[in-house]
Amino acid sequence: MCRLFAITSETPLSPIVALEALDVMREGHDGSGVGLFLRDLGGPFEKIKNSPVLSGIFTADGLRRLDHFMMDIGFLTKHKISIKIPKAQPQGIPRRDVYLIRAYEYPDEWDKLTWEETQNRLTRIRLQLVEMGSEKEDMVVFSFWPDVIMIKEIGDPLTVARYLDLDREELHARVIMAQGRQNTNYAINLYACHPFFLHGYATMTNGENTAFVPIKEYLMSRGFDGYSGFYSDSEVFTHILHYTMERLGLGIDAYKHIITPLQDEDIARHPSAALLKQLKQTCRRLIIDGPNCTIGCLPDHSLFMAQDRKKLRPGVVGGYPGRYAFSSEICGLDAVLPYRDKSRDIQPMHLDTALVGPDRKEIQLCRQTEALDLPN
Amino acid sequence: MSSNGSIGPSQLSIKDLPWQIVWDKEKCALCGKCTAVCPVRALELGVFQKRAITPVIDIRQASASSFSVYYGIRQKTAPENACIGCGMCSLVCPNDAILPVRGDEADKLVFHINQGGAPRRRGGRRNAPGGILDRIKFIRISMLTDPALDAGRHEFEFRTLLGRVLTPEENLRHLKENGWIPPVREIYPLIIGGMSFGALSPPMWEGLQMGVAYLNEEMHMPVRMCTGEGGCPPRLLRSRFLQYVILQIASGYFGWDEIIHAIPEMKVDPCAVEIKYGQGAKPGDGGLLMWNKVNKLIAAIRGVPEGVNLPSPPTHQTKYSIEEAVAKMIQSMYMAWGFRVPVYPKISATSTTLAVLNNLTRNTYAAGLAIDGEDGGTGAAYNVSLNTMGHPIASNIRDCYQNLVRLGMQNELPLFAGGGVGKSGNLAANAAALIMLGASGVQTGKYIMQAAAGCLGSESDRCNICNVGLCPKGITSQDPRLYRRLDAEQVAQRVVDVFVSFDTEFKKIIAPLGRSTSLPIGMSDALGIDDQAAAERLQIKYVV
Questions:
Q1: Hey, is the C-beta of A343 within 8 angstroms of any chain B C-beta?
Q2: Strand, helix or coil at B355?
Q3: Minimum CA–CA partner of B512 in chain A
Q4: Could you tell me which of B513, B516, B537, B540 has the C-alpha nearest to residue B527?
Q5: Which chain B residues are Cβ-neighbours of A288 within 8 angstroms?
Q6: Which of B39, B76, B411, B490 could bridge B472 with an S-S bond, Cβ 3.0-4.6 Å?
Q7: Strand, helix or coil at A111?
């Protein structure tokens, strides 16, 4: 089973913190891959928060093609991190040419664009690069977004971290999400490694989503570029989150109502019954069947955790004002935040969404049976 | 036969018939029950003469023969009396002395039954055993990170939507602006398909209605039943049980006066209105209620004279096309109930289904599309229609679903599949296969008659006399002497049994796939079939 760990902190932290937590949770045959999502970056990226950062893995040829492509569309490199690969290759980690983390300057003509249009264009460029990469297998692009870095690799998480020297100040971030173990349901593919990212939303999930094919078909037919990929059955969790918040204009408290709606008798008693009944009917295609524990990050840097309806996967949230962590097992949390008040840990159940907002002051728990916070 | 007698072309021997009656003289008690029960009077009292030769050892005396007479059963060979193999005779025989046996070759009766220039019309089924649905396997069993569910203990929510579903964005906008949101019913995915009050006997219809009401009110399973064409008894129209009924309007408009008149007095809305344009067993034939079944009650409900044939035209004669019907008929039906009742058409599966579907997708009033495949049953149809017309349901429903996926409307216009669901007894498996191919729900009729009322028909031309009102079990007869054989209470009980056991079997299929909170509509990654061509056609996995 996948191990999940996410942390949000007032002061930037090294990604190694999250990877060590994964290592504590490791069991059995785990650790066939690792995915890292870093946001609200510290270090050199602190000052260039608005510049889009491209993260991916490239061959030497791929990098040349990337440079041509980016120059053609007017993007200039603003800052880059060079990851020097040691000569000795640990067992189980493939040899790569370049791990790329590069911040760009927007082309001048983008200055006039609205944020919405900018988001769409950034997504299209990322998808174009993914497509170019799949043609010649020379580039893998995880994200292209301001203030976001993503690193994914096959291999034992901690070994990968040491090999790539991820414990460096340049990579410190205030929000870190990490997942250990590759996707096992479909073909092994770097893109299938969690977390997934779309338009500022990121999620990672353990478990399996058996409703994957109908959900995928539904999302693909929504006519939105970003609903693509689908290398993993869990990727749809990110897309559904984006769909709920961006396309339907609902809040994070509605997310669980989309993926795991209440049963009819509970809806009848709910303060937002009329809306929920309609949501359950119209979004029926997006209902997932667990077991899943989903941890996600919203564009405003909130972190949340939601569970499926009944075949719950473990998940715990704990910490103290200024620093909270989300973990798929308590031992992961213990390893990183040993001095927290454990009695205040929260293990969200089938109706709960646990949320730590951008202020990192407290854990909010919204129950599905409570009234929705609806925008006017 | 005398030596100078003539043997005409239509003079058949017992061997020429599809069914031969095997009768055992030694066991027969001559009680006469078999002859009394036979619906087609295939049996008559036979008087047989037996010659016995008594040899004498004493050569001085001549041997003698003696004649004795005995009574027994004689099988008639006239086409109208040919044994239909229903087996009622063996059912009533106290000594197991009689049994119909299927002939060992293609029967000659088929050439001779069409006397008077009218080809054979029969009720029942297509008589083609097997089919693609029975060959589909469910191959995606959750065994890796998602453990299979416990079918016996988990909570399951098997509900499907009947009604036009707006896109989530549009729906929220309508909700906010107080716009019209099309009515949607949450129902059980297995619907009892349209079998009319004229086609079925009163106890059968009553039994089905009682069963459905019990399922809803006691078992909390929102099962719905379609009336078929022919109206609805006035008391039902004015009762709260109407909400469990889908009213069907077909091209004959039979019974609709009664329904329209009852609207002001209706306590509840019907579940939905189904406009029947075609049925899978006899596409292009329209319905037919033969005169034998049009008794006083049926005539009164349908608003017609007694004892006349009631053919429905193959198409709605007031309509130019389905496109036009979508615009007119669906809308007028919506208006009749104040836009509170979903209205959807039912068509025969055909190579033009996609065109019909595409038209419906452009109309927000269309609440769904029911598609009836070639294996559907019928109360009456020409032999040739039943046997050779129509389109299999599996590929038809798959094409339609994939078309909806391309349009991005797979959640919006529900598809209901019918026609041969459970014809080999695998109701739950067939239904699950159709749902995973893309149907939102399935309709079944034949299976219900068989399982809930003991219909004797099978997929080998057994019985098949639903059309002439001689149903040996009294299921499809309007003759009180026959339908008194059927007890409505027992039918109701069996209907409940059927649905509850279906539910268990359905869970046994769905739970291992890891599903429980929503129907696996379109979950085609779970399906496999051992036929390469079928796998390619249905876009499911090929497994051997």
A1: no
A2: helix
A3: A210
A4: B540
A5: 517
A6: B39
A7: helix
* Element housing A282 (H / E): helix A273-282
How sure is the predictor about B174, in pLDDT bands with cuts at 50, 70 and 90?
very high
Measured CA to CA, the distance from residue B27 to residue B179 in angstroms comes to: 75
- Are the Cβ atoms of A278 and B172 closer than 8 angstroms? yes
| Cβ-Cβ contacts under 8 Å for B247 (sequence gap 6 or more) | B226, B227, B232, B259, B270, B272, B273, B274
Tell me whether residues B146 and A311 touch, CB distance under 8 A.
Answer: yes
Instruction: With a threshold of 0.90, tell me whether the complex ipTM lies above it.
Output: yes
Cα–Cα distance, A317 to A305 (Å, whole number): 8
**How far is A2 from A194, CA to CA, in rounded Å?**
10
Residues in B 504-533 with any Cβ partner in A closer than 8 A = 513-518, 520-525
In this structure, are strands B378-382 and B43-54 parallel, antiparallel, or unpaired? unpaired
Q: Do B410 and A221 touch (CB under 8 A)?
A: yes
- For residue A342, the 8-state DSSP code is G
Rg (CA), chain A: 20
Query: Chain B within 8 Å of A254 (Cβ-Cβ)?
Result: no
Task: Check CB contact of B406 with chain A, cutoff 8 Å.
Answer: yes
Q: Which of A290, A217, A203, A288 is nearest to A252 (CA)?
A: A203
pLDDT of B272-291, one tens digit each? 999 999 999 999 888 889 99
Element (H, E) at B386: helix B383-388
What residues are paired with A267 via a beta bridge? none
pLDDT, tens digit, for every residue of B58-107? 889 888 889 999 999 999 999 989 999 999 999 999 999 999 999 998 88
pLDDT at residue A42 above 70? yes
Interface subset of A 172-231, CB within 8 angstroms of B: 184-185, 206-214, 217-218, 221-223
Whole-angstrom Cα distance, residue B253 to residue B276? 10
Question: What is the chain A residue with the closest CA to B167?
Answer: A282
In the three-class reduction of DSSP (H, G, I as helix; E, B as strand; rest coil), residue B122 is classed as strand
CA-CA distances (angstroms) from residue B453 to B200, B278, B446, B447? 11, 26, 10, 10
Give tens-digit pLDDT for A77-126: 999 988 888 888 888 888 888 999 999 999 999 999 999 999 999 999 99
Residue of B nearest to A223 (CA): B408
Instruction: Identify whether the C-beta of residue B496 lies closer than 8 Å to the C-beta of residue B219.
Output: yes
On whether the CB atoms of residues B484 and A177 are closer than 8 A, the answer is: no
- Of the candidates B165, B171, B515, the beta carbon closest to that of A289 is on B515
Instruction: Report the C-alpha gap between B433 and A274 in whole angstroms.
Output: 33
- Residues facing residue B122 across a β-bridge: B381
Give whole-number Cα distances, A173 to A99, A196, B478, in Å.
18, 18, 81
Nearest to B287 by CA among B474, B467, B468: B467
User: To which H or E segment does residue B67 belong?
Assistant: strand B64-75
Using only C-alpha atoms, chain B has a radius of gyration, in whole angstroms, of 26
Confidence category of residue A31, pLDDT binned at 50, 70, 90: low
Residue B288 CA, chain-centre distance (Å), reads 15
Cβ-based neighbours of B260, under 8 Å, separated by 6 or more = B336
Q: Is A158 or B189 the better-scoring residue by pLDDT?
A: B189
Sign of the alpha-carbon torsion through A342, A344, A346, A347: positive
Query: What is the DSSP secondary structure assignment for residue B178, as one 8-state letter?
Result: T
CA distance A50 to A55: 15
DSSP letters, A25-64, are H--TT--SEEEEEEEEE-GGGGGGTTSEEEEEEE-HHHHH
CA separation, residue A215 to residues A20, A222, A284, B405 (Å): 34, 11, 9, 11
